[in-house]
Amino acid sequence: MPVLAQAAVSSSEARIRLLPPGVPNTAAYVTVLNSGEKDITIVGAQSDVAERVELHNHVMDDGMMSMQKQDEIPLPAGSEVRFQPGGYHIMLFDLKAPLSANTPVSIRLLLDNGQSLMFSAKPQKPQSEHHH
């Protein structure tokens, strides 16, 4: 599977939630930019640190916020998609080993054009959502 080299799709601000040992699942966040002239769709994700990796989104359903698996996430030409808390995110299920704050995690996003985008996510403890 070809990896994008100096291509239209790039990533920034990649991070993964560093949770206490024994927590089997976590989420990764990243900003993905499509600076090209063609629309692209993100169709999946992979990582060696988890048994299963899925694309998810938080959606409002009957007044309740719920997490739903996404089969694809559009990435129109000249735009960016932010994977962030409360929105799109990358779920990593059944971690094979506890994450370490000093060890970045490699994640690959699969694109509908047969290419992929590999990025390194820095483990970080979840930030409090409350600002005083």
UniProtKB/TrEMBL annotation:
SUPFAM superfamilies in the record: DR1885-like metal-binding protein
Q: Which domain of life is it from?
A: Bacteria
Q: Which PANTHER family match?
A: BLR7088 PROTEIN (PTHR36302), COPPER CHAPERONE PCU(A)C (PTHR36302:SF1)
Can you name this protein?
Answer: Copper chaperone PCu(A)C
Taxon lineage = Bacteria, Pseudomonadati, Pseudomonadota, Gammaproteobacteria, Alteromonadales
